[in-house]
Structures are given as structure tokens and as C-alpha cells.
Amino acid sequence: MKSKVKVFAKRRGFTIVELVIVIVVVAVLAAVAIPTLSGVVKEAKISVVSQLAANFNKAVVGNEATGDSIVTMHDAVCAIEDYGFEESDAIDEDGDYCVVWDSEKNRFVVFDRETKTVCDEENSTPITKLWQVVDDMPDEQDTSLYLSNNFTETVVNAEVGIDVGDNKHIEKIIYTDIDDIVKDIIIRINDPKTLVDDTNKGNDNVTIIYAYDTENPGTSEDSDTPDVPDSTDTPESSDKTEDSDKRDEPEVFDPDKIVAEEGKVVYCVSDGKQYDSLANAMTIGGEMILLADINECDIQVTLDTILDLRGFTVGYKNEQSDDTIVINGGSLIVKDSSENKGGKIQNNCNPRNNCAAIRLKVGTLIVEAGTIQGSKIAIYAEVKTSVTINEGTIIGKGNVGMGIYLLSDVILEINGGYITTETTTRYAIAVNEGMIGYSIIINGGKIDRNVANFGAGEVIRNGGELSGEIKT
């Protein structure tokens, strides 16, 4: 009987050469396919953003056709909103590409966040003239920033242009080393309660647009007056222009309509309440409007504050032993919305006490109107503070009075106003020996009497009128 023997064919695996060939082929295919696929994805992303930019530009072109000018990013946002888009449509903070407004060409373009360039080889617009809408402060400030209404932060470490749009939540914009900025930037604010820190140092590259009337806060000033529609305008375009104008004109706050409650001396705009003491109101911050003369002293300013004197006086009319107002960690803007600008901050201390009407310990003082007067010193600026005089009168009273007294590292900028002292033996502005690092920048206004520059600082005179001498 024959035995059956199964014969199995010998199986052979892949050789090393074959495996290498397969790996090489796969690598070649991947090298070709992956960039192609990446390019397709990239083009798809750019296409989506490009379509959005094209839609926005239709709104811009339509706006130009009506004769309305677009000067700021806020104007551009208003233009796209007129055509049915929303501010939020322009926000994409996480994507590789985003829509930005090119202020040089007045067109929306696609911006590549990785390369920090516009997706257009012919575009040479500087980064600071490209604007994007943001909800919060980005880690990298690749372009100038338009703050949406959702932005509720204090802007810190700003390096580029800022446009607050219609946002009423921004209380302060803080720039670092603004003196070192060599690129042109624009800062646009639309609320007098919004304070801009470190912009009062005379940097010619920085332009601030106040989109409100400083005498009537709320009145827009940042765009041209729209043309009056003629009889050839269609009803639709007339209605659209009228609606746009209504939206662009915030309600004007009229301090003259405030009815003072019995015993109340100041109205706080921030919380809408009246207070019987300016010192108490200062703990709230924001804008303060005087309702009566205030006999107080040692009023501490620790928050950013606007004080509207409105023709009234702050400070004891008789002798006192303290400074009237002390800025100790905040910023103070002094203005006067009354017709005669007769408001006053005064100090009548015994000259031996060395008191001041306003003493800066830490912070910034900006005088827009009114009178600051002291029987010894009107304004006393301590180390590393900043004073700007735009308008108003600064006067040292009596035989020993001085207008402004500076210590080391103080920046004093005079753009207007009148600074003097009642006696010819004293100084309108004084710095004693031993003081260093200070700057007195005179751009305008009138300084009546001598300036004592006895320290190791600088006096820069670009204009203004000086009746006395700069003594060294």
C-alpha cells in the first residue's frame, strides 16, 4: 500500500531590497501628496476668509459711492454694519488667517498670522496700519487692534494702535515705553472716562483721536459730517443714512440737567449717585461733577478720575494745614464745563506748612481748564510723576507762592494755559539743586515770571511765551 505524502510548497518572505523599495515608494508618494494636501487645506482656509473680506469690501465700496469717508477702523466697522454684517463677523482669534482692514488702501484683506503678512505679494502696508477686531488682548500684537463691545479689560502693555469703537467698558489704556515707539500708531477713544496712560510725553509718532467733544462728552468728532441727502436720493438710501447717523451719535450727557439733592456736593457719573463729600466720591473713581463749593482738604485720588469743576471751588477758603488734593496711585484730569471756566482748586495753608493745592505722590495730573492756586505751592510733583498743562491757570499766591514745584524724574509738559506767581521774587516753575532726571517741555501757553532750573534735568522749549528767564 502506497503511503501518501503531502508536499508543501516552500514559502518565501520579502527580501530586504523589496522592503526598501516599498518604503522608498511610499516616502515619495507621501512627499508629493502631503504638501499637495496641505496646500489644498491652506487654500481652502484662505478662500473662506477671502470671501468674507470680499463681502466686507462690497460694503466699503458702497459706502464710498455715497460719499461717506472712512478714516478710522470704527468707520470701517460702521460701514459693514450698515450692509447687514455684525462686528463679530470679523472676529477669528484662533484661525491661521483673519480679516483685517488696510487703512492705507481702505480695503479688507486676508492676514496670515504665522508669517505676519497679508496674503498678497503686492501689499506693502505697515503692520500698524492693518486693523483686526478682537474680543480680548492677543498674546502677540501683530496688527493694530479694534476692541469689540465684549472687551472688558484694562488694556495693558499696548504696543500698537488701539480703537475702542463703541466700547464703554475700557477704563484705561496703558502703553509701555511709548517714548521708544518709532512706528506711527493711532489711539482712538470715545469716552472721556477712558484714560490713556503714558501718552503725554510728546511722541510725534503717536496720534490720539478723541471721538467726543471734550466740552460735551458723547458728541462724535472722529468722522466728517455726512452730506445732506438731496432730492435725487432714493428713500432707501436716505433712511439708511438717517439710521446710521442715529447709531453713531451717543446720547449727550448734560451736567446742567443734574438737580442737586440737599446737602450733596458732587455727582459721580460712574454710579449715578450724589455724595456729600468729594473724598467719599473719589473712592468710586470715574468722572465727578461738582454741584457746589467744597470745603475739604486731604482728598485722596487713588483711582483714575476726571474732575469737572463746573465753576465751583474745592478747598478751604480759610487757612488749612493739609494739601487740598493728593494723587496717590491714580490719574486726575481737571476740567471745567462751565461757560466762564471759573472753577478753582485752592489751598490756603500757612506757607510754613509747605502744602499744595494738588500734590502728586504717585500718578498723573492733566489740567484741561480751571484755576489751581496755592498760598505756598499750586502743584507739587514728587518723584516719578507726570504733569500736563493744556489750559487753565496755575498760580502761586502771596509773598512765597510758586506755581509748580518739581522733584526728580518728573515730566512736566506745558501745551497751553497760564503759569505764574504773585511775587517777583519767586518762580512760576521751580526745581531745586540735587534734583535729577526731570524734563520740562514747553510747547505753548504763557509762563509769567522766572523758571528755576537748578537741578540736573532738561528744559525743552518748542514754543510758548516766557516773560522771565530760565535760571540755572
Describe the structure.
The protein is α/β, with parallel strands linked by helices. The chain has 2 domains: about 45-220 and about 235-250, no CATH class; about 255-470. It has 4 helices and 34 strands. The strands form 4 sheets. The chain has a 16-stranded mixed β-sheet that branches. α1 crosses α2. The protein is elongated and about 110 Å long. Mean pLDDT is about 80; it is low at about 215-250.
**Residue share in β-strands:** 25-35%
- The N- and C-terminal alpha carbons lie at a distance of 134 Å
The outline comes out as elongated
The main β sheet shows up as: 16 strands, mixed
Gyration radius, in Å: 32 Å
Key traits:
single chain; 2 domains; 8-stranded mixed sheet; 34 strands
Q: Short summary of the structure?
A:
The chain has 472 residues and is an alpha/beta fold. It contains 4 helices and 34 strands.
Element layout with pairings:
Blueprint: H1 16-65, H2 73-82, E1 97-102, E2 107-112, E3 117-118, E4 130-134, E5 144-147, E6 155-158, E7 162-163, E8 172-175, E9 185-189, E10 195-197, E11 206-210, H3 235-248, E12 266-268, E13 273-275, H4 278-281, E14 286-290, E15 299-301, E16 305-308, E17 313-314, E18 325-335, E19 344-347, E20 356-367, E21 371-374, E22 377-381, E23 386-389, E24 393-396, E25 402-406, E26 411-414, E27 418-421, E28 429-431, E29 436-442, E30 446-447, E31 451-453, E32 456-461, E33 465-466, E34 470-471
Parallel strand pairs: 4-5, 5-7, 6-8, 7-9, 8-10, 9-11, 14-16, 15-18, 16-18, 17-19, 18-20, 19-21, 20-22, 20-23, 21-24, 22-25, 23-26, 24-27, 25-28, 26-29, 27-30, 28-31, 29-32, 30-33, 31-34
Antiparallel strand pairs: 1-2, 1-4, 2-3, 12-13, 12-14
Helix pairs in contact: 1-2
